[in-house]
Each structure stands twice: as C-alpha cells, then as structure tokens.
Specification:
- By secondary structure, the chain is α/β, with parallel strands linked by helices.
- The protein is 39% helix and 22% strand.
- The strands form 2 sheets. Strands 3, 4, 5, 6, 7, 8, 9, 10, 11 and 12 form a 10-stranded mixed sheet that branches.
- The chain is globular.
- It holds the Pfam family HTH_1.
Length: 309
C-alpha cells in the first residue's frame, strides 16, 4: 500500500470555523455562545485565539455588535463552504441514501426572478435530496410568511428580520441605477440630481414598503418629496416605456446591463453617490442544514459583477 501524504498543516480547526460562522450570524459573543452551547468567555477566547493564529483581525467591535472585517468575511464565506462539505461527507458515509427535503423559496425583489429560476435548475443537480420550489405569492411579504411557517427560505434586500426563530447571512450586493432613453434630455448629463428624480416619472417594478423606504432614505435623506412613480410588473415593460422617453427606469444594474447593447438606453447614477443594496438570505432554523447547503450553492451562482458577502 502506498504511503498517504500527510494533510497540510492549518492554523485553524473545525471548532474555530464554527465559532467564526456563529459570530457572523449572531452578531455578539453572547448570542453565538447560545448557538454553540458554550459560555460567552469561551467564545471570546476562541475568537481572540483564532485572530492571533492568523495574524488578522476578523471582526470589528462596534456598538451594533461584531461586524466581519474583509478578512473575516472571506473566512466566513470559506468556512461555510468547508463546513457544508464536511457535513455532506459525513452524511454520505453515515447514510448513503439522502432523505428528501423540500425548501419553499421566495425573493423580496421581483427582478431577482430573472436570475433565480435558472440558478435553481443548476442547483438541483448540486443539492441531492433538496427539492426547491418558488413561492412567488409571498414576494410582497416574505418575512411574515417565514415567521408563519409558510416559507422556508427568503432572499431579502431591505426587510427587517426578527432574531427569534430565523437565521440570516449576507449573500451579495447590487447597485440601483437609473436608465433613460438615449434621446431623453437627461441622457447627456454625467449624473442625475435629486431634482431630476422629483420632476420626472420614475418607472419601477412593484416593491414592498421596506424597499421603497430604503430607496427614499438613500436617494433623498430626510426629505420625503412627492414623486411620480409608475409600477410595471415586467422588466421588459419598464424598459419599453423608458425607450419611449416616458420616464426614468429604476433598476438593478445587473438587470439593466444586458439591455444596453443596442445603444438606445443609457445608465445614469446620482451625483450624491452609488445606491448599493445588500442582499441577504433568511431561513427558518428548523431547516438549518439544508438552508446552509443552499446558501453555499447560491454563492457560486451569483451573477457576474456583483459583490459577494
């Protein structure tokens, strides 16, 4: 029998990875300790020891709790994949026949349905034993549906998630941009102003109240101007109306970009800066292992150009 090469030496072990992932999910050492069934001092010591061994700070200590640093976020993302892979390996060894688990999934933003269905087709092959189904009827109210047990997993942008009974993890971020016809008077502008948004019709998809509140806060600060908004259910309809010069489309950049090749539409941003929108995945704790496997798989299907985590 040939000699087996020893595995590479690492500075962290599985326990360290579990602590880091729990801290990223819980936000405080106290809540992470409850998740791990450890004491708070033990979790604090484990974090300090991991940071010392790596020579890098993994979390910033803020009044809002622990926030992953860039190094910490990279470790959390990689640790999630490793722990999922280890769990899958153990499961295959212990129980070769994988039991079927059904996950009911929804997106808070309609535009994500351009990406998610094709992603789910690919994911079904990489997630044996997990059956994924879209519950689009809960698009407008995903969090109440999660709490009520009518959903298992939701991809969220701005909705507030209660800590009790639900887990959340950062998935990616996108940018909200403004699209106008190439013939529109604003097309020659380098950037748009708040006044431009006040004086022109805004074209967008149906959005939940939390999404609208996020947009108003990011675009106008404390101002609450009365805007002319027309909501259309299909991206193609929004862009057709935009091509006709009838308003400014408000879309995610990754949705708008494929429609710019003809040159009849142009993208604009606000002079005050980009509107970055965070996406998170939230799930009921009862489906924990299956949801974490789905999270890891979704990270590999994120559309190009989006910032992960």
């Amino acid at each position: 029998m040939e000699d087996i090469a020893p595995p590479p030496a690492t500075r962290l072990d599985v326990r360290d990875l579990r602590v880091v992932v729990a801290l990223a999910s819980a936000g405080t050492t106290a809540r992470a300790a409850a998740l791990l069934h450890l004491t708070q001092p033990a979790v604090s010591r484990a974090l300090l020891a991991a940071e010392e061994r790596l020579g890098a700070r993994l979390f910033d200590r803020t009044p809002r709790g622990l926030l992953p640093t860039p190094a910490g976020q990279e470790l959390v993302t990689g640790a999630t994949r490793l722990l999922v892979a280890l769990g899958d390996l153990e499961h295959r060894v212990r129980a070769p026949v994988t039991p079927s688990v059904r996950l009911r999934l929804v997106c808070e933003c309609y535009t994500a349905y351009h990406w998610l269905p094709s992603a789910l087709v690919a994911l079904r092959k990489s997630l044996p034993g997990i059956h994924l189904s879209l519950s689009v009827e809960h698009t407008q109210t995903p969090v109440p549906a999660l709490v009520a047990g009518e959903l298992d997993v939701a991809l969220l942008t701005t909705a507030q998630v209660p800590r009790t009974g639900l887990e959340t993890r950062a998935l990616f971020s996108d940018e909200i941009v403004f699209v106008v016809a190439a013939s529109h008077p604003l097309a020659s502008r380098k950037t748009l102003t708040r006044e431009d948004l006040r004086t022109h019709t805004l074209l967008t998809s149906p959005t939940p109240p939390a999404e609208s509140q996020w947009f108003m806060a990011r675009a106008f600060g404390r101002e609450r101007p009365r805007l002319r908004v027309e909501r259309l259910p299909l991206t193609e309809a929004i862009l057709d109306v935009t091509r006709a010069g009838m308003g400014i489309a408000v879309l995610s950049e990754w949705i708008a970009t494929p429609h710019l090749a003809k040159g009849d539409l142009v993208v604009k941003r606000l002079a005050s800066g980009p509107l970055r929108r965070p996406w998170r995945m939230a799930w009921r704790r009862e489906v924990g292992d299956a949801a974490v496997r789905l999270l890891s798989a979704l990270e590999a299907t994120v559309p190009r150009g989006l910032a992960v985590g």
